[in-house]
Write a structure and sequence with these properties.
The complex is a heterodimer of chains A (375) and B (401). Chain A has 15 helices and 13 strands. Chain A has 375 residues and is α/β, with parallel strands linked by helices. The longest helix of chain B is centred in the middle third of the chain and has 18 residues. Chain B is globular. In chain B, 32% of the residues lie in helices and 22% in strands. The chains are: A alpha/beta (375), B alpha+beta (401). At the A-B interface, helix 1, helix 2, helix 3, helix 4 and strand 11 of A face helix 1, helix 2, helix 3, helix 9 and strand 13 of B.
Chain lengths: 375, 401
């Protein structure tokens, strides 16, 4: 199939893998973080680690929008949804995220009106069709999905809809990367930069990573060859002692980002002073809320939100996994108490979560893979 | 702190998580109690990883238990939750040797004759879709379940649950399509039932069909028969039905030239069984798709399964739609495709027999049964890597970005 197969060519992968291996200094270990959950998903789905020398370890970063939502926010959303006059709408990924009292799916089974949508504009459609109900969109995601929420708010305002609002949980990627760079228990050699986020914010915001922290960043696409090529570009920088921001995904990512999308975000949303991230704690200026000009679309102002904080279960090590300190399988409850059917931590919910990706696709040591392919 | 607009504030004391977490953790403690390796030294990474994998294997072998208090949609999606529901509720209640294999149809001995019996309910939405409707689906599905047991389908029942207000013209369109499908498959609908429920209590029209057939060949088909070295075949491109339905619901605003593959497979199976011995198991890849069947083979026979992504036939339109939606065609339902496990010495004969039938022209060998690792399905990706293909958890959810 065009535009897919050429990015999954095994011959090209072998050639790249050989070049990557040749760049490894003997005896040196490399830790590269793929920031984005979409990359984690690709890496596991295509078995990309099989191509990497043992010296290179991929560390899975915090760029999974579902994974970083704290349990308290889910409970808040559930409180909003429990009003019989409310129709709560949400992306599919969000439906299985556990709150204190189960997930959206569980609430749906108990009779709460929660509907899955593919785009926030679908929520708007539901609002138009149900004028006697109040429709709330559970907005989640990084700068990738924020523009579509922003456009939806703008359209709702233009149409003068009075029964639509958003429960805004949008987060921004740069503060999370900075929190990881400042984390004392982590030593990284470079970053595979998030692709979709960068289509919106561009590459400039990463410049501080090279300048202040001396780490290379390569913004990467989502096909397996994209990621392999990005690893090669990172290894090349490391072998030449360079730390620069490079754009492997130039077919989609403009260096300066998408100005129209950024303007829409800026028009409708502003930074919160701080926001709680699952496992990472409170990070200042790391999330967005609805701007006061659009307050009538802000569910947090329109309705009473309990604002509960729920402590992460002690045994759940999502934070360490999100920071890349632990491999998913090193978490104490991985695969036994915490599985994709009954996730305790958010990393197990979304297919982009590192734990779910590893559980669904990985669950084999490299030695086992070798045994099986020769048996 | 002056941030009245941010209800989730650092100042709010955190409350402890709910009871279900504590319960999951207690179970976990019990399961991992036997794990002390006795060595004070940290073990090498690969050894520790192996131990975790074994712990997971043990957890997965534990007796199935429905943890939800109420039925949720994933109980019907054909993946892990469905399997748990069937084993923990239905098998527990009805357990008997005929039910226990959980095959597509039960094999019975009646006065010396070998008979297969099956039943299936149809709740598809929309009722009419490109390539078929709920009527031919209800006939073909039951015909196929009988065929997978190696039986020649003979007679079907049809039960209708109709919602008040349902157009009679639509009902007649459905019954005409059922009759056409029955004629095509060479079966008769010989008994039936009608119930009408109040508006809002059903989604237009639900159909249940049951069917009986006779088993003429002297073979016992079943996924538990799979042995290391066996070959795995699929009778044609996968995922057509599921993607067609998803697009026909019109929620996605994607248009593609795809039709449901709904078709009776009894002719295809008859040709296959007549052509060659060495057929170990047949399964139609409906809900849960080919991936679910492969997992059933691995689990029931205690074997490994290795399939090659490059060899699995998928139409470009299906693949394109699945890529856009972030869904793996391996998990998408088919309604006219079967997966066959065949003695490798007979694989070529089986492939030729499938391809000789109009419904099997694009049949392909997709993989093989291995001794190791038991219970696990692996995929050699087109990209050249290896990964696990697990049972589906819940409905396939579209990824958000």
């Amino acid at each position: 199939m065009r535009f897919v197969d050429e990015f999954r060519d095994a011959d090209k992968a072998h050639a790249l893998a050989a070049k990557i291996a040749s760049l490894c200094e003997p005896g040196r270990q490399y830790k590269l973080m793929e920031v984005c959950g979409g990359h984690t998903h690709t890496i596991y789905k295509h078995g990309l680690e099989d191509y990497l020398p043992e010296q290179i370890t991929l560390v899975h970063g915090p760029g999974c929008p579902v994974c970083v939502i704290p349990m308290g926010r889910v409970d808040d959303a559930m409180a909003l949804a429990s009003d019989p006059d409310v129709i709560m709408t949400s992306f599919g990924d969000m439906m299985r995220v556990p709150g204190s009292n189960g997930s959206f799916f569980d609430a749906k089974a108990r009779g709460t009106d929660i509907r899955m949508v593919y785009s926030p504009l679908d929520s708007l459609k539901i609002a138009r069709q149900n004028p006697d109900k109040r429709v709330i969109f559970m907005a989640i995601g990084f700068e990738t999905t924020a523009p579509s929420t922003a456009m939806t708010v703008l359209r709702a305002a233009a149409e003068g809809l009075t029964n639509f609002s958003i429960f805004c949980n949008h987060v921004t990627i740069i503060p999370a990367i900075k929190a990881i760079l400042d984390s004392p228990d982590l030593r990284l050699d470079g970053f595979i930069g998030p692709g979709h986020v960068s289509t919106v914010i561009g590459c400039r915001p990463y410049e501080f990573i090279a300048r202040d922290y001396g780490k290379p960043v390569v913004v990467a696409g989502f096909e397996p060859l994209d990621i392999l090529q990005s690893i090669y570009m990172l290894m090349l920088q490391l072998s030449q002692d360079r730390a620069e921001i490079e754009n492997q995904y130039s077919r989609v990512v403009p260096w300066d980002g998408n100005v129209v999308a950024l303007r829409a975000i800026g028009q409708t949303m502003e930074l919160r002073p701080y926001f709680e991230w699952r496992g990472l704690g409170f990070i200042s200026h790391s999330a967005l809320k609805v701007r006061s000009d659009y307050a009538k679309f802000d569910a947090e102002l329109l309705y009473s939100v309990p604002g509960v904080r729920v402590a992460d279960p002690k045994a759940c090590q999502c934070g360490e996994v999100l920071k890349g300190v632990l491999k998913p399988w090193e978490c104490k409850v991985f695969g036994t108490a915490c599985t994709p059917e009954t996730p305790i931590g958010t990393c197990m919910v979304s297919p982009e979560g590192a734990c779910a990706a590893y559980y669904n696709y990985g669950r084999l040591t490299r030695t086992r893979v070798k045994e099986a392919s020769t048996s | 702190m002056t941030t009245p607009d941010t209800p989730t504030t650092a100042g709010v004391p955190a409350v402890a998580p709910a009871g279900w977490v504590a319960e999951a953790l207690r179970e976990h403690e019990a399961a991992s109690r036997f794990e002390h390796h006795g060595s004070p030294q940290p073990l090498p990474g690969t050894v520790r990883e192996e131990m975790v994998l074994e712990r997971i294997d043990r957890a997965r072998r534990a007796r199935p238990r429905v943890k939800e208090e109420r039925i949720v949609m994933s109980h019907g999606a054909g993946g892990k939750a469905t399997q748990t529901l069937i084993e923990a509720v239905f098998l527990e209640a009805f357990r008997n040797p005929l039910l226990e294999p959980l095959e597509d149809a039960a094999r019975l001995h009646v006065n010396g004759a070998k008979v297969a019996l099956t039943t299936d309910s149809y709740v598809v939405s929309p009722l009419f879709f490109p390539g078929g409707d709920i009527g031919d689906l209800a006939v073909n599905g039951t015909v196929n379940d009988l065929s997978m047991a190696g039986a020649v389908p003979l007679y079907l029942s049809a039960g209708f649950i109709l919602e008040e207000g349902f157009p009679v013209a639509d009902l007649m369109r459905i019954t005409a399509s059922m009759q056409a499908a029955a004629e095509r498959a060479g079966v008769q609908v010989v008994t039936g039932d009608t119930k009408v429920v109040q508006k809002g209590k059903a989604d237009g029209c639900y159909i249940n069909t049951a069917g009986v057939g006779v088993i003429e060949h002297d073979i016992s088909l079943g996924v538990a028969n799979a042995r290391p070295g066996d070959t795995i075949l699929v009778s044609g491109p996968i995922g057509d039905h599921g993607i067609t339905i998803m697009l026909a619901r019109g929620e996605l605003d994607i248009e593609a030239d795809i039709e449901s593959d709904t078709a009776p497979l009894n002719g295809l199976v008859a040709g296959l069984l007549a052509a060659t011995p060495g057929i170990r198991a047949l399964r139609d890849a409906t809900r849960g798709g080919v991936a679910t069947i492969l997992n059933e083979i691995a689990t029931a026979a205690g074997v490994g399964v290795m399939v090659n992504e490059d060899d699995i036939p998928v139409r470009a339109e299906v693949r394109g739609a699945a890529e856009l939606l972030g869904i793996d065609p391996m998990y998408v339902a088919c309604e006219g495709r079967l997966v066959a496990v065949v003695d490798s010495a007979r694989a070529d004969a089986a492939l030729a027999a499938l391809r000789a039938h109009p419904l099997g022209q694009q049949a392909a060998i997709i993989g093989r049964v291995t001794a190791e690792p038991p219970g696990i399905v692996q995929l050699k990706t087109a990209f050249g890597g290896t990964r696990i293909v697990d049972l589906l958890v819940g409905d396939p959810l579209p990824r958000i970005c």
